[in-house]
Amino acid sequence: MKANLIFYKHQKELPIQLQNRSVCEFGEIFQDYDEHVDSIYVCYAQSDELQGEREWEKLGNICYTFVEKNHITHVEIDENNCEKINMPVFLEGFYKADYHFDRYLSSKDRKEVSLKLPKPFENISINAQKAAAAVHVARDICNEPANKLYPTRFADYLTQLFDLTDVEVEIIQSKDLKEKEFYAIETVGKGSEYAPCVAILTLKNSGEDPVALIGKGITFDSGGVNVKTGSAIAEMKMDLGGAAAVIGAMKLLADRNTACHVKAILPMAVNVSGANAYLPSDVIQYRDGTTVEVGNTDAEGRLVIADAILYAQQLGIDRMIDIATLTGNVGQALGLKTAAIYSNDIKLSTKLYKYGQKSGDSVWPMPLEKDYKRYLNSEVADISNMSNHPFAGSITAALFIEHFVKEGTKWIHIDMANTTKIFPSTKLEASGFGTKLLYELIVQREELWDD
Ligand code: BES
Ligand code: MG
Ligand code: ZN
How far apart are CA 450 and CA 446, in angstroms? Predict the structure, then answer.
């Protein structure tokens, strides 16, 4: 079925027979059959008071959802009022909503929706589709079950995904992890039949010094020997949300031919218990000599992120962003919509809020409260991976990672454990959080890192 999509602001912009409608508010949408064409009217009123440009994404989402529900397969946007709409963001919302994780369903009952735009918007549309495709990649990675996406498969998938792009993919296989001094990743991955590995993606389209993007890629986190309990454990197939965000961002940077130099480091492992699994009380010695007591095998994320940070610094990289589904505790602090952001440079962390607003991936700065570092004291090693205090779990995790950040390194850390799932859905559905944010942080890198 075909329909025209018409934006209106006031009742008087509707055809005369529809002007008696009593509601006329942002997002109101309805269908009308008029002069032999189906028309969908969507209200963009109050756009002046919109809280931010991401409201336009919501409008796009509303339109797609309506179209799909009403089995409309061909939509043509009417040029009237188009100039009043923030089309790049609207279209991103529309295309993003066109997502279904149905590859394991025997019968899929979905139809393609095509969207036709007035000529001047065609390029904008291609750009929006690229953003949506990148977010969908991140969502796919999180939605994949752990028996389908484990480290070596994940690595193969990346090789395929970036084939024919400017992104180079290098995989450090399990057998080489020790030789390359990725001691923590090797340790965390020991309990599983599925071997761990590290993926390194390089996009070098400019002569600048590289920025590192580090993403936690735990393809399943059972907690290991400190096993998790309860039904929510299935969610831990999404413990690679950080890696997914980095991959999405790399894809978008590549697809939009962004001139930049980015190195992504993705530690991948399955954190499960088993005969060879690492144990509470184990001591890990890192490449720089730092020793860590494993206070809890479920605090595995910080262990592998530290490995990647040391590696990036060894490569001489001095600007880095890590993103990880690190602590359940971050949700206690910020709820399920906003991720926590930390930096060893306070000016940086306060700057980041606006990029969150711009990208639609909401973040809020949190303090690296030095006085809490004592909670990570260990009697047998330099530091413990487990806090001995019940509060501030996201902060102590960030402090643990900061322990590995050398002077002179500019570092941003994002704890996104609470935002991997779509807000406010209660289903186990991935959001693709972080893709747009990391993309934005790379695009705006000059302004971002400038002191
Ligand atoms: N992957 C989890 C964090 C997580 C929790 C992500 C809930 C998504 C939803 C992480 O590895 C973890 O287990 N963290 C522990 C840390 C604790 C043992 C110090 C946690 O948050 O309980
Ligand atoms: Mg864990
Ligand atoms: Zn985890």
Answer: 6
Cα–Cα separations (whole angstroms), residue 34 to 41, 69, 226: 12, 20, 64
For position 51, what pLDDT does the model report? 65
Task: Give, to the nearest 10 degrees, the angle between helix 435-443 and helix 346-359.
Answer: 120
Domain boundaries, the chain: 2-98, 133-449
Task: Give yes or no for residue 329 CB within 6 A of ligand 1.
Answer: yes
CB atoms within 10 A of CB 48: 6
298 Cα: distance to centroid of ligand 1 (angstroms): 7
pLDDT in the model for residue 48? 62
Q: pLDDT per residue over 131-182, tens digit each? A: 999 999 999 999 999 999 999 999 999 999 999 999 999 999 999 999 999 9
Q: Does the structural domain 133-449 have CATH classification 3.40.630.10?
A: yes
Q: CA 397, 176, 291: angle at the middle one, nearest 5?
A: 35
Q: What is the mean pLDDT of residues 411-428?
A: 96
Beta-bridge mates of residue 262: 203, 211
Residue 191, SS3?
Answer: helix
pTM to 2 decimal places: 0.98
- Report the alpha-carbon distance of residue 10 to residue 5 in Å, rounded: 16
2-98 CATH fold = Leucine Aminopeptidase, subunit E; domain 1 (3.40.220)
The yes-or-no answer on residue 228 being catalytic is yes
